[in-house]
Amino acid sequence: MTGKPIRWGVVGATTIGREWMIGAMREAGGEVVALMSSDRDRGAAYAGETGIPHATTDLAELLGSGIDAVYIATTNEKHRAQTLAAAAAGKHVLCEKPLALTLADAREMVEACRRAGVVMGTNHHLRNAATIRALRDAVAAGRIGKALFARVFHAVFLPPHLQGWRIKDAAAGSGAVMDITVHDADTLRFVLGDEPVAVTAMTQQGGMGGPGIEDGVMGVVRFRGGALAQFHDAFTTQYATTGFEVHGSEGSLIGTGCMTQRPVGEVVLRTAQGEEALTIAHENLYVRSVTAFQTAVRGEGAPVATGEDGIRSMALALAALTSASTGREAPVEPGI
User: Fold this and answer.
1) Which residues contact residue 135 at a Cβ distance below 8 angstroms, ignoring those fewer than 6 apart?
2) Where does a domain end: 77, 92, 124?
3) How far is CA 90 from CA 37, 78, 99, in A?
4) Quick one: 51 and 66 in the same domain?
5) Same domain for 94 and 183?
6) Which residues form the GFO/IDH/MocA-like oxidoreductase domain (predicted)?
7) Half-sphere exposure of 175 (CA within 13 A, CB side)
8) Listed residues 108, 124, 140: the one ending a domain
């Protein structure tokens, strides 16, 4: 496959595909050759709008259309079956988060790709943010000493055009925890270089989520190395800002405006020597993600976030839901 463009099939006529991923695949040198949507008319219109030459409602037809890799962006309950079919067909898989609704299903997906010898990645885009990478690098370099605490502010407002299954369809894995906290879980692991062991959380129904579906959550995570991390996620806060802070024995890192799809934000380091604005080289998060994935497909390196990373982020999110429902601390047990 060296020298040839990676040929992509897109599974799901989604907003993220239209706004970010299809363009990223092309900018990274790939070709988007086919789309599958369960709705024939929607799929045909979407393919026309995005310049995809072939649209189908049949996954087998998509997998047989000469593609090398699939990008799976359907609702969460569909990811398992679609990933297993792609792996069986020998196609590399980049799957949206969360990977599935249960850890058993997510582990099955990752194992199926491993057995088939195909690359599997989880589309945790925030790992690609220059701000998040600057935070990770500063922590790893010991610039704040021992990491003691972290705080993630990821409460946003879900815009009207996205107020569909995420707040209405419990069977699809809806709610703020599986949609947003799963990102916090991955980003905390990435920045701290550590694994979570337990979480305590409380969820909220603030008026946007349907019956039994949380639209806000706060929690605290305990990490193996002793650090504690707060997270605040919501669909209901129209005027909140996002951020990521890490506080250590010798300094603090303050990231602002960084929990977003856009290449924006800044990071300040505060120590006894004063304040230093870290150098941030912003770039398109999704182009970076797709480029790394395509490089892995060619046999060099690995996806920015692997399938195993997807399992671990799910494990923390599911533990947060368990804690919220039981009123007790819940262990984080990815089982890998």
Assistant:
1) 191, 244, 246, 253, 255, 258, 267
2) 124
3) 21, 19, 19
4) yes
5) no
6) 132-253
7) 23
8) 124
In angstroms, what CA-CA distances link 27 with 3, 73, 137? 15, 19, 27
Rounded to two decimals, the pTM is 0.96
Two structure tokens written together for 278: 């870290």
Decide if 223 contacts 178 (C-beta within 8 A). Answer: no
| Cα–Cα dist 274/268, whole Å | 10
CATH number (domain holding residue 89): 3.40.50.720
131 and 107 within one domain: no
Q: Are residues 101 and 133 located together in one domain of the fold? A: no
- Tens-place pLDDT, residues 71-106: 999 999 999 999 999 999 999 999 999 999 999 999
Q: What amino acid is encoded at 115 in this protein?
A: R
pLDDT at 2 over 70: no
* Tokens (6 digits) for 308: 């195993």
Query: How many domains does the chain contain in total?
Result: 2
Q: Which two tokens stand for residue 57?
A: 């409602």
Range list of H helices, the chain: 15-16, 22-27, 40-50, 59-63, 79-88, 103-116, 130-140, 165-168, 176, 182-192, 285-297, 307-326
217 lies in a domain?
yes
- Domain co-membership, 176 together with 196: yes
Domain that holds residue 191: 126-286+315-331
Closest of 270, 266, 263 to residue 279, by C-alpha = 266
pLDDT digits (tens, 9 = 90+) for 180-203: 999 999 999 999 999 999 999 999
Copy the structure tokens of residue 148: 């003691």
Structure tokens at 155: 């409460």
CATH (domain of 249): 3.30.360.10
Contacts of 221 (CB under 8 A, 6+ apart): 185, 188, 196, 198, 199, 228, 229, 231, 316, 332
Q: How big is the chain, counted in residues?
A: 336
Is 155 found in the same domain as 104?
A: no
